[in-house]
Design a protein that fits this description.
Chain lengths: 482, 435
């Protein structure tokens, strides 16, 4: 059933890879942003002006991408910095996210909280989010007010006023956020330990919110250093989507951001995971009611793969498993065998580092975790054994075609897609090519990536084994009538 | 109203005179079997959204909590001669999305499809069949029952869910809103097929349905779509009005021990109905008190000034009967009493003094200046017209929204909060370890 129950289970299981400033939720990088003196304009669009994309480079290295969408008199402005949890090292984990919170605590010109007050008084909505591979800040406004967002955003790119007293309080807020999102959520705790087991060198080892001890030990100095290092025009992409005129947006961006000098960015270390050479397993025993099993196979992603089709074949593979209610996992594990109450699969096409193809399930009432794990493994074996069917591929194509239209219903999502791609070191045109790339994948290619990457030596398994909650024997038991 | 206030209100109004101040053109009619249809033409994208809302939420569960959700979840598990696989394959191969949901007031069925005829026509046909002739297959019924049981167990490991369920129970006692839409374990285990089919026959009927349509179709096509989706349902009868909610007579406090590092704290009382005469005064007042995000008073006192919680807010949930008024936060167990004290003080002060003129002006600018954002997608417009239709709000609700907001005064807010909000008779729920 694709009811609220299933959605709830899935959401709880998948854990958090994105953290917002306030209750609200990502992925991808490349750092050698070239400082070019000329302006680049590329335009791709379905009509003369609607959905056309324009790309500009300011002289200080800040990239501006404008997408026209004239359906409603609104605009979204998102600024994306190439920094996030995957840039951190153990000891300072969580610094990107805590800094994101502090970006609302004032500049030399504006006292703490004033940014939010100005946006609110202009009818705007604002938030920010930190992922593994980016930190992004956004405002949604009635279109005539775009300049207000630019003025404030340009100000805090370089003039943030980091104060000890505000920092102490905000660190407490983020510690509470970690308790809320992770400590008291058994499935989120499991996901965190799963990632930490699957990756030992690759920075996806660390959670975006940071390890609790690191978080509590962060100092104002750590944040200040992080801010000075990464917040500069040549490390940022400004994405604007809405009822705007691209040249006017370019002029406005030039006016507000154009005079900010570029900085020298540190060189990035590769931080590649050594070969795994054997299955890994982690068991998480915490007070809980519902067990969970997660399987993750190490895979390259579009940015790291030797040939792009392999990443797209993995994307198709994940969709064969979990792209709609007729996909294999719903049809066979949830409905056919009745083994899972909810289950799914996923792949991070646009991550910056090698990532995982995951399969996960919450056992149905009365089902053993081991049996469910076996059924997930059997799904993988089948992908090794048989090519996927033509019907399954044609279903995916129909879904991709439709979703390319549906996604145009959200101005925010369109900006998000551009920002993510640019920030992980791909380019926004990748979204335009997506349907074509997916449609080109053959059953033999899916089988090949299954055999190459979904191997026993690349596998990490995490199991959540519930301990009794509140010292009570478990309620519900393992038996259901009927 | 003082001259300053008048000036501020005028400025606020001027700021808002963008073309988006008017809502979309809503067309409204009734199908032959009594379903109300609300339609907005959105020709820009080649897609259409259809949502059918039935007055068939958990408020209709009666003595069987979970019945409404269980019935709704079974719609995609079999219809006519189609089984769940055939239904899923049909929507997936057409690139259509069908989804179902059930809350306290309402049960919904939604379809999103491209408008291309060879895709839309079969998607609509199957969608209509699900509403009309669900088959409640025995095996699927048992499977969904087990899924609901896992859902309930998941709730029982979540302090947020435990607190929310206890909060509704404390507010609503014998009222149908008291039980959660997800049901209770004994009830979910006991529900039989007959109860589901009876529920479906009673509530999934024309006179109990509101159809909302937004997309690239014209009026004639929209009429045809509405007919295809619901016209073959029996006319039936609209659900009876829900009983009124009794106000709380005394304060109560319940602590539920749970192994969590934070305490979830919920404080509140029954709030207001949709269409309530005090709606705009209470809505604006609450926006200032705790509904306006980081700039609202509760967030400022609890989070910004003291660092006690990630999320501290207050909210009305206007429903068919009086939905809850909730003040909520989560904080480490040791800080529970401190946070509660700050929350109570902030509320008491707001009720006693009301908002300042500057706060009201800021709130009006925020709400009215952002109005265009509320209706900038088909999805948003669909939600609005479904709500207008389901709760019987006037068709010009969106057109008059900004005027209604701007007409509210600080005195009206203070008066409405003093009459309606009673901290001395609120229910308090805390879930966590003893701090």
């Amino acid at each position: 059933m694709s009811t609220s129950t299933t959605v709830l289970l899935r959401a709880a299981l998948l854990g958090t890879i994105l953290l917002g400033l306030h209750a609200c939720g990502g992925v991808p990088l490349n750092t050698e942003a070239p400082v070019e003196d000329h302006r680049v304009t590329t335009t791709v669009g379905d009509t003369a002006s609607n959905h056309a994309v324009h790309e500009f480079m300011l002289a200080n290295g800040m990239k501006l991408i404008v997408k026209e969408d004239h359906r409603a008199p609104v605009v979204v402005s998102q600024i994306w910095y190439k920094v996030g949890a995957s840039y951190e090292h153990i000891g300072i984990t969580g610094v990107s996210h805590l800094l994101e919170h502090m970006m609302f605590k004032g500049t030399d010109k504006h006292p703490p909280g004033e940014f939010s007050r100005i946006i609110a008084e202009n009818g705007g909505r604002e938030n920010a989010f930190t992922g593994r591979d980016y930190t992004s800040y956004f405002q949604q406004l009635e279109v005539s007010r775009l300049a207000i967002a630019f003025e404030l955003e340009a100000d805090r790119m370089r003039n943030l006023h980091l104060q000890e007293e505000e920092f102490q309080k905000e660190r407490d807020v983020v510690v509470e956020e970690r308790r809320l999102r992770t400590e008291d959520k058994p499935s989120a705790l499991t996901y965190e330990k799963f990632m930490a087991t699957a990756f030992q060198v690759n920075p996806y080892h660390n959670p975006v919110i940071g390890w609790m001890d690191d978080l509590k030990s962060l100092t104002l100095g750590d944040l200040s250093h992080w801010y000075q290092t990464w917040y500069s025009p040549n490390n940022a992409t400004l994405v604007v989507v809405g009822d705007v005129e691209p040249q006017a947006v370019r002029q406005l961006a030039q006016q507000h951001f154009g005079r900010i000098p570029p900085s020298t960015l540190p060189a990035q270390k590769p931080r590649r995971e050594p070969p795994q050479q054997g299955e890994r397993r982690v068991v998480v025993r915490v007070p809980a009611e519902v067990p969970v099993v997660i399987l993750g196979y190490r895979t390259p992603v579009l940015r790291t793969v030797d040939e792009p089709w392999k990443a797209y074949a993995l994307e198709v593979l994940a969709t064969i498993l979990d792209g709609g209610d007729s996909a294999r996992i719903s049809r066979e594990l949830v409905r056919g065998q009745g083994l899972a109450a909810s289950a799914g699969a996923g792949y991070d096409l646009t991550a910056r580092h090698d990532s995982l193809l995951t399969l996960e399930a919450t056992p149905a009432q009365g089902q053993e975790v081991a049996r469910v794990e076996q059924a997930l493994r059997e799904q993988v074996s089948r992908l090794h054994r048989e090519p996927v069917s033509a019907e399954e591929l044609s279903r995916i194509k129909a879904q991709v075609t439709a979703s390319k239209v549906y996604e145009l219903d959200s101005v925010f999502y369109q900006a998000m897609q551009i920002g993510q791609l640019e920030t992980v070191g791909l380019e926004w045109q990748e979204a335009e090519r997506y349907a074509e790339r997916i449609n080109a994948i053959t059953p033999a290619q899916v089988q090949q990536v299954a055999r190459d990457y979904l191997t026993a030596d690349n596998l990490t398994v995490a199991i959540l084994e519930p301990l009794p909650l509140n010292g009570q024997p478990q309620k519900g038991g393992q038996h259901v009538g009927h | 109203m003082s001259a300053t206030k008048q000036l501020l209100t005028l400025c606020a109004a001027l700021l808002l005179s963008s073309p988006a101040a008017a809502g979309p053109a809503i067309q409204q009619w009734q199908t032959g079997n009594g379903a109300q249809v609300y339609f907005v033409a959105a020709p820009e994208l080649p897609m259409v959204d259809i949502q059918v809302t039935f007055n068939a939420g958990s408020a209709r569960d009666g003595a069987s909590p979970g019945l409404a959700l269980f019935t709704n979840a079974m719609l995609e598990e079999g219809a006519g001669d189609l089984d769940a696989n055939a239904i899923a394959e049909q929507f997936d191969r057409l690139g259509a999305n069908a989804s179902f949901g059930s809350l306290r007031d309402m049960a919904t069925a939604s379809l999103r499809s491209l408008t291309e005829e060879r895709l839309l026509a079969p998607a609509v046909q199957t969608f209509a069949q699900l509403l009309r002739e669900p088959s409640f297959p025995a095996a699927a019924l048992e499977r969904v029952r087990k899924q609901m049981v896992v859902g309930l167990r998941h709730e029982s490991q979540s302090p947020a869910s435990i607190a929310s369920n206890a909060f509704y129970e404390a507010l609503y006692a014998d009222h149908p809103y008291a039980t959660p839409p997800s049901g209770t374990l004994p009830s979910v285990l006991a529900l039989g097929r007959d109860e589901l089919t009876t529920f479906h026959r009673r509530y999934y009927v024309g006179r109990n349905a509101v159809v909302a349509i937004v997309g690239a179709v014209d009026r004639q096509q929209a009429q045809a779509l509405a007919e295809q989706v619901v016209a073959s349902l029996p006319a039936g009868e609209a659900a009876a009005p829900l009983p009124p909610v009794a106000p709380l007579s005394t304060a109560s406090r319940q602590h539920i021990a749970h192994q969590s590092t934070q305490t979830h704290l919920l404080l509140g009382q029954p709030g207001m109905r949709r269409g309530d005469p005090d709606y705009f005064a209470l809505y604006l007042g609450n926006h200032i008190l705790g509904g306006g995000g980081l700039v609202s008073r509760i967030s400022d006192e609890i989070r910004e000034k003291r660092g006690l919680s990630y999320s501290a807010y207050s909210a009305f949930s206007p429903m068919a009967a009086e939905g809850p008024y909730l003040l909520s936060l989560q904080t480490k167990n040791d800080s529970r009493e401190e946070a509660l004290e700050v929350l109570r003080t902030t509320l008491a002060q707001f009720i006693a003094e009301g908002p300042s003129a500057a706060e009201l002006t800021a709130a009006k600018k925020n709400i009215t200046g952002g109005f265009a954002l509320n209706i900038d997608s088909n999805k948003d417009i669909l939600s609005y017209i479904a709500m207008i239709g389901f709760y019987g709000l006037p068709l010009d609700y969106l057109d008059t929204f900004i005027g209604q907001v701007n007409a509210v005064s600080t005195t009206q807010i203070r008066d409405a909060f003093q009459r309606r909000i009673h901290p001395e008779r609120m229910a308090l729920i805390t879930v966590g370890e003893q701090g």
